[in-house]
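User: what does the whole thing look like in 3D?
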Amino acid sequence: MSDKHKSNIYGMGVLKSLGLAFRHFLDTYLDDIRHWGKRYKTPEGIAYRASKDVKGIFTVQYPFEKIPVPEEFRFVPFLIYEEKAGTVEYRCTSCGICAKVCPPQCIWIVRASDPNTGRPSPDPAELYIDIDICMNCGYCAEYCPFDAIKMDHDYELASYDRKSNVYDKAKLGRPLSYYASVRPINYQREENARLEAEAQRLARRSHA
Ligand code: SF4
Ligand code: SF4
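Assistant: Here's the predicted 3D structure for the full assembly of 208 residues, as structure tokens:
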């Protein structure tokens, strides 16, 4: 290929990229006009800018406005508890699987013991996660056999104090309703599977 031909190709490439950048620049203003008064600082505008239809270049005016995160977004884990007859029951059985699979080893669990017999009981007496070390991989939630630990959406966790970033059981705990609100599709899928398993169990028992 001759040098002249090569420089023609490169020249066209540069012009195409400039054209694309210019089109995005224009789209910004056209989209502002199309969604006059609604593109910024309104729930409708934020939802539009979080969608695949958005055009142009824009700045998210954080922290005054926040782009909603998708359901599968992961930040740090939380522990699910259920409120039954006035008591709080954590789903966690302190099996230790999450601590074993955690790549940076930032989960610590102390298993509770029966006060009468001294035998280990399926509850975490203490459970800590160092959220500064957590790499947000979601393995703990993925591998937990009891749907007891899930990944949160809350990413505003800055603090001035290193110690407060080692979360204990109380700080990690969230009611089941919270899980249902942040991950409704996952929650429903798991509930359906649970109901189906229960129905199968009852059917087997009635045939026995
Ligand atoms: S959160 Fe799940 S995997 Fe981790 S100890 Fe509790 S039950 Fe086991
Ligand atoms: S999200 Fe990953 S790094 Fe964080 S606690 Fe769970 S397994 Fe560990």
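In plain terms: The pocket of iron/sulfur cluster (ligand 1) is lined by residues 92-98, 109, 144, 146, 148-149 (CB under 6 Å). The longest strand covers residues 120-130.
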